[in-house]
Write a structure and sequence with these properties.
The chain is 40% helix and 18% strand. It has 278 residues and is an alpha+beta fold. The protein has a domain at 6-128 and 211-275: Beta Polymerase, domain 2 (2-Layer Sandwich). Residues 24-241 form the LicD/FKTN/FKRP nucleotidyltransferase domain.
Length: 278
């Protein structure tokens, strides 16, 4: 990996989120910082110091609107890497910056855009009923086992390897569509909960009352002001526990390794791959 300071990586991510924020405002699309990015906003007023990614989520209707508008209206400097495509089989999307290189270990040899990015996640409506929520979660986990295998996910965990292989074989495109429809079956209905089922969080940390989102609350994030859920503290307690404001120990930090394997802030990934052995 080319030596790049974490702050330089974070500054490039700030460039992307600044554009994304303006684009969403211009098109009346509501989004919120999520996960570790929301935690960083509240605890550090910016990035968690060792973070090299930036995540947002949206309700299903805002997510669909974003994908529709972004397809034809993005600035030429940006690229929409849309979910559930041959290029990107995962069930979330990315906004990537052209003219940069950000290659991860498990996508090193994939034919795909590999510039700097932010992740754009979709929240799906769900039920108060714990059992029904768990079924949606399990359906998403089955799909994820297949999609991470297609993406090239690298793991030493034998159980994960077996699961990825098993579901990549038995989950046909038809079954995947049915599972996706099941996960999204409440999105046109009035429901009290939403869930982020395609993330890395365990089931108890994936869904929460929809009123936690509420009207976006603007908070300081490095040099910008960005939106978090209205009841962001309740969301962070659900996601990380009551002591979310405390710095984690080294063991917890090790669960969140940096994403970048190869980085170049100023060279397009196509040129980088062409001119370097990776």
């Amino acid at each position: 990996m080319i030596k790049v300071e974490i702050k330089d990586i974070q500054n490039k991510l700030l460039e992307i989120i600044e554009y994304f924020d303006a684009f969403c405002k211009e098109n009346s699309i509501t989004y919120y910082l999520m996960g570790g990015t929301a935690l960083g906003a509240i605890r550090h007023k910016g990035f968690i110091p060792w973070d090299d990614d930036l995540d947002v989520f949206m309700t299903f209707d805002n997510y669909q609107k974003f994908l529709l508008v972004a397809k034809n209206n993005l600035n030429a400097d940006y690229y929409l890497q849309e979910e559930n495509t041959k290029e990107w089989p995962m069930f979330f999307s990315k906004l990537r910056l052209n003219g940069t290189t950000f290659i991860e270990e498990d996508t090193k040899y994939r034919d795909m855009h590999q510039g700097f990015y932010i992740d754009i996640m979709c929240l799906n409506k769900t039920s108060k009923n714990l059992f029904l929520r768990k079924l949606q979660f399990l359906a998403a986990r089955i799909i994820t086992a297949k999609t991470v295998s297609k993406k090239g996910y690298i793991t030493d965990n034998k159980i994960k390897k077996i699961g990825m292989k098993f579901f990549s074989v038995i989950i046909t495109s038809r079954i995947e569509k049915k599972l996706t429809s099941y996960i999204r079956r409440f999105n046109e209905k009035k429901m009290d909960y939403v869930g982020h089922f395609f993330g890395r969080a365990k089931f108890p940390n994936t869904s929460f009352p929809i009123h936690y989102l509420g009207k976006p609350k603007n908070v300081k994030f490095e040099t910008l002001v960005l939106p978090v859920p209205e009841k962001v503290e309740k969301y962070l307690i659900l996601r990380y526990g009551e002591k979310f404001m405390e710095m984690p120990d080294e063991k917890t930090k090790s669960l969140y390794p940096q994403h970048a394997a190869i980085v170049d802030l100023n060279v397009d990934y196509k040129d980088f791959i062409k001119n370097n052995k990776i």
